[in-house]
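forwarding from the other thread:

> can someone predict this with FE2/S2 (inorganic) cluster?

sure thing
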Amino acid sequence: MLRNRTAIPQVPLEKETAVVHKPLAHDSARLHVSGAATYIDDIREPAGTLHIAIGLADKAAGTLRGMTLDAVRAAKGVVAVLTAADIPGKNDIAPAFADEPLFADKEILFHNQAIFAVVARSRDEARRAARLAKIDIDEAKPAITVADALETGARVLPDYEFGRGDAPAALGRAPRRLEGLLHIGGQEHFYLEGQAAFAIPGEGREMLVHSSTQDPTEVQHIVARILAIPDAFVTVETRRMGGAFGGKESQACAWAAIAALAALVTGKPCKVRLDRDDDFALTGKRHDFRADWRVGYDDKGIVSAYDVMLNARCGCSADLSPGVVDRAMFHAANAYWLPDVKVASRRLKTNTVSNTAFRGFGGPQGMLAIERVMDAIAHERGLDPLDVRKANFYRPGGDKTPFGQTVEDMTTLPSMIEELELSSDYRARRRAIEAFNANSPYIKRGIALTPVKFGISFTLIHLNQAGALVHVYTDGSIHLNHGGTEMGQGLFTKVAQVVAEEFGVPIDFVRITATNTAKVPNASPTAASSGSDINGMAAQIGARQIKQRMVEFACAQWGVTAEEIVFRDGLVLIGNKSMSFGELAKTCRLNRVQLSAAGFYKTPVITWDRATATGRPFLYFAFGASCSEVVIDTLTGEMKVERVDILHDVGSSLNPALDIGQVEGGFVQGMGWLTTEELVFDAKGRLSTHAPATYKIPVASDVPADFRTKLHMRPNIADTIYRSKAVGEPPLMLPISVYCAILDAVHAIRPGSQPRLEAPCTPEAILNAIQSIQTH
Amino acid sequence: MTDPHKEPRKSLNFRFRGADVALNGFAPRATLLDWLREEAGATGTKEGCGEGDCGACTIVLARNRDGALTHEAANACVLLLGQVDGAEVLTVEDLAEGANLHPVQQAMVDQHGSQCGFCTPGIVMSLFALYHRGEPATRASICDQLAGNLCRCTGYRPIVDAALETCLGEPADRFAIHAEARAEALAAIADEKDLFVGDDSAFFAAPASERSLAELCDRHKDAVLLGGATDVGLWITKMLRDPRKIIWLGRVAGLDRMETVAEGLDIYATTSLQRAMPRLAELHPDLGEIMRRFGSAQVRVAGTVGGNIANGSPIGDLPPALIALGASVELRHGEASRVLPLEQFFIAYGKQDRQPGEYVRRIHAPRLKANQHYRAFKVSKRFDEDISAVMSGFRFTLEGRRVIEARIAYGGMAATPKRASGAEKALVGADLDNPTSWSAAIAAIATDYSPLTDMRATSAYRSRVAANLLMKALLEVAGGHSATRIGGLHAAE
Ligand SMILES: Cc1cc2nc3c(=O)[nH]c(=O)nc-3n(C[C@H](O)[C@H](O)[C@H](O)COP(=O)(O)OP(=O)(O)OC[C@H]3O[C@@H](n4cnc5c(N)ncnc54)[C@H](O)[C@@H]3O)c2cc1C
Ligand code: FES
Ligand code: FES
C-alpha cells in the first residue's frame, strides 16, 4: 500500500519570515469541515424571500414567435413572471460586444437559452411553474460543431494571427514534414456549488446582491445596466464560492441580474440557485478546438517551421473568447523555439452556449496541439519523445516566443525536466514498458514526460491592477479587504499572510472579510492566476502605508529612529520599549494617526499591442513538468493512470500547502478534461451530458495511487510578492503528459504509426485511435 | 392492516440532533435534503446535483441491524423523508463537540483536504461512515467509500490521506462511546406497526409485513412502490413528477434477507446493493467487482436489488450479469406467486412482465457448476460511479475444452437487457484452444444487436466492444498467459 508521498516542503529562504511562506491551513478550513461556511444558498433568508427558476428555449436556433405564460402565472405559488419586456435597462449581459441578451426576445441563440424567469414563494413551485410555458419558436437549422461553423463561415469576432518569418515557405524547405488535425474537447467547470445569487432590495433603488462570482465588479455593472440604475446604487458581495474555475466570471452575471430584476419588480428579497442540469445547459464551458497543424523538421526532430490554425468554437457570442483564443495562440509554442512560425485562429460562431473562461483560458488547447506535434515527430523519427522535446526547448539564439517576447528565464524549465527525468526514473521505466509491451498483445503501457510554460498576466493590460482596504483597530485587530475573491484557492489566506507579516502579528489578528464592491471598487476579476500576485501587492502597499504612519508617529513620540522599531510576534519593539501592537494602535488613534489605508497596485513592465502583435504581454512565466504512466486495454479502450510525478514551479511559495493543493487539484482537473470528461451535443444542439450522471469528472479512484508532487521553489526573477509565482492555472496543463502517455501506449501497437487520438481520451476515443492504426 | 392490534402508526419517527422527531404532515415526495435545509434550517448539508451523483448532500443514517448499530452514508437529495423512519439522522453539524472537531474533521483540516469547501460536508460524512466501519481503511476501501463524493478542487489526495490517518479500526469518538444509549433510543422508537402518513389520496406508507404490503398494493394499484429511491428520487427532483401515493418496501419484515439455498443464493427484493455485494462476490469475483463499481457507496446503501430488476432499465448492471448466470425472479401478488427466468421479465423498453399489484419479491442466482465458467465486464467512461455504456455477462459450460452451452447477455445494446442468441448458438462446439472456432460467435454479436448512439457511446463502439468482450471472456477462460485486464484480476503485472 502506497502511502502519501506529498509531504509539505519548507520554502528555502534567504530571510526568515514569521507568517508568509508557511503552510498555514485555509482560513475557512474549520468552517468547511463543520458545515458552517456560508454559501449563497445558506444565507439566512429574510421573511418573504422569493425564489426564481428560469424558463428555457427548447430549440437551438430560430426566431421567437411568441410565448404563452398564462399557465405559468396561474401556477401555485407564482408571484411574478419576468421576460425581456420587464427589463427597465438594456437587455444585454455581454461583457463587451453587446451580443448576448439576458432573456431571448427575438433570435434564439442556443438550446435552453433563458427566455423568462418565474418568481415564486418556493424554489420547488418556481421550478414546476417554469415547465408550464408554451414557447413558440420558428426553428432554424443550428450550427453545432466546429465543422458546421466552418461551413457557415460565421464568426463571433474576426480572425487573428501572428508569427515570425515565413512558415509556409519554411515548411516547403524543411527536410521532413507532417500534418494533422487534432480535436480537443471542451470542459464543464462543474464547480460543486452551482450558480447562485441573492438580491435584497434597499431603500430608494439600492440593490444588494450576494453573488457567487469571481468578478463582483462586472456583476455590479451588469446589474446596473439591466436595472438602469447607476453603479453606485448596486453593491455586490461575495464571501466565497463553492468552486469557480473561470465559470463564475462573466457567467455569474445573468443570475445576479435576474435576482436583482425580480427584487426590483417584487420589492422582496429574491434568490436564484440554478438546478444542476440548468447550470450545465445555461452556462459556458471551456472552448473546444480543432487544431490544424503542419510542422517541418529535420532528421534529429528539430523543428524549423510550425503552422497552426486554431479553430475555436466560441458558441453564440463573443463573451470572453477574445482573450481565451488569444491565450491559446500565446501558448501554441509552449516551451519550444519555433524558428518560422505562424499561429492563426478562427473564432467560430455556433448555436451553442457561449464558451467562456476556464482555468488556463485557452492556454491548454494551444499547448496540447504542440505537444501532440512533438510526439508525431518522435514517432516518425523513431526517437524518444522526451529527446525531441529537449532538442526543441528555447535556447540561446532561440529565445523568442512567436509573439516576440524574450523568454528571460531559459534555464529553469530544462533543469526541471532533467530533475524530473531522474527522479521519475523515466529512462528505466521506458525500457521496462517496452519490454512489457513486446509480450502483451492486449494490454499496453505508455509513458510521457511533458513540460508546461505558462504566461502570467492578464493579456488585457488594464486588468492588471488591484486594490485593497486595510483598517487597524485599537485592539490591534486588522480588517482586510481586497478586490480578489475566494473560490477555494486560498487567496484570502495568502493575502492575510502578507498583511500579518507586514505588521508582525499572528495570522489570527487579521480578519478576512467578504469581497464587496462598496469597499474596493473597480476591481479586476479573480482570474488569470493573478489573484495573489496583484491583490497581495495591493494589500502589502496598504498595510505599509499604515505601518509607515505608525512608525513615523512612534519616532516622534519616543524619539527613536525608524530602524529602532521592530514589529514582531504581535509586539512592537520601539528602542528599548515594548508594547503590544494593539497598544500602539490605540496610542496612534489618541494622537489622531489614520489607521486605515487603501492600497493600489498595477503590474509594471507589461505591454501588448494586438494590432501589431508586439510587446511583452507577460510579466513572467510559470513552469512545470510531469511524467505520467498509463495502461490501456486494447479490446475496450479503457485506461488507467498508474503513476504520476510532478515538479511544479511556484517561485518562493507564499504558502506551500495551498500551492500543493493547487498543483494536485489542477492536475486532476486537467486529467479529467483529457480523459473522462466528454461534452456531447446532439444534432439539434442539445447538450446530452448535462448532469454528473452523464458528465464524468474524476473521482478518487481515478487519481493514481502513486502520485508524487514536488514544488520547485526558487525566487521568481520578476519582482512579485515575496518572489512567489502564480499557481492557479499552470498545473491544469501538467496532465498533457497523460494524453501523451496514452498516445505512447497506442503507438506501441504499431511503432512508427501516427494514431489519431482525439481528446478527451474516453475508452471510445482510445479504441478509435487503435483502429486508426490497425486498418492502415 | 386488518389486524386490530396493529393500527398503523400515523407519524414518521426518527432521531435528529439527539432528540426524537415525529412528523405527520409532509408531502409524500418530500426529500430529506429539502427537509434539512428548508424546514430544519440545517444548511451544512449541501445540494450539488440533486440526483445522487455528487455526494455534497451526504448524511449518515444510524440504525440497529442484526444487534449492532450501523452507520451508513446516504444521499439526502434522493432519499425520501419517509425513508428515515426508525433511523438516527446524522449531519455534518453533529460531528464536532463545541470547538473540538471530530477526528475525521481534524484530519481534513490538517491534511488541507478542503479548498472551496462545498464538497467537504459530504466528504466528512462519508469518512465518518468509513470511520465507523471499524476496520483499518486502505486506499482501495477509501476510494470505494468516496466514489460518490465528487471534489472538483483538491484532486482527492489529501482527503484520502485524511482517511488513512483516522480510519484505523475501532471507532473511539463520542458516537462510539454513546453507542449503547443511541441504540436504545432507536429501539425505543422502533415498532412493528405499519406506517401510514397521509390519507387515501396522498400518503407515504411503509407496511411492516408482506401481508400488509399485499393489501396496500391491492387497494392502491396506482401507488409507486419504493425500494431505495435511487431512481424514484430522480423522478421527483429532476422530472418534477408528483407521486402522491408511495409505498416504501424498506420496512417489510424479511424482505431484505439473503438465503443460501442448495442450488445457489436467494436475494429478497429490498436487500441493499451494498449488503448483496459480498454474497454475489462469493458466486463469482466478477460479480463482486460489478457490485463494487455499482453507483457509489451511498447509492448501494439505499438502492435495492429488487429495484435494479424492477425498474427494467436497459442499462442496469445486475440484469445482464444475472441473466448470464441463469437467474430467476419471483413476483408476488398477495398469496399468489410466480417465478420466471429473469430474461423473460424484460419485455420491451419500459415494459416488464409485472401486473398491477405485483411486486418483485426474490431473485434466485444459481451457483456455478464445476464445468461452468463465468465472466462479467462493465465498460463505462469512468470506472467508478458511472452507468455502463456496455454491460456484459458470460457463462460457458464446458466439456473438456469444448463449449457445450453458452449464456451471453448484454446491457446497453438493446431496449432491454438481452441475450445474444446468435452468438450463444454459434459458440456451441467451439474449442477453447482454437481461437478461430470462436470467430463465428464473435461475429454474431453484430447481428444479435443494433445498439443506439447516445452520450455514453456510439453504436459502432458498442458493437465493437461487445464483440471484443466476448473475445476477452473466451481468452480468459481459455487461460492464456497474456494480461487481459488493466485492474483487478488478470491484470497487467
Ligand atoms: C448516482 C447513481 C448511480 C447509479 N449507478 C448505477 C449503476 O452503476 N448500475 C445500475 O444498474 N444502476 C445504477 N443506478 C440506478 C439505480 O440506483 C439502480 O437501478 C437501483 O438498483 C434502483 O434501486 P432502488 O431500490 O433505489 O429503486 P427505486 O428508485 O426505489 O425504484 C426503481 C423502480 O423500481 C420499482 N420497484 C422498486 N422495488 C420494487 C419491487 N420490489 N417490486 C416492484 N417494483 C419495484 C419502483 O417502483 C421504481 O419503478 C444509479 C443511480 C444513481 C442515482
Ligand atoms: S446533491 Fe449531489 S448527490 Fe445529492
Ligand atoms: S473542495 Fe471544492 S469541491 Fe471539494
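Residues A 192, 243, 488; B 114-120, 151-154 surround FE2/S2 (inorganic) cluster (ligand 3) (CB under 6 Å). thats all i got for now
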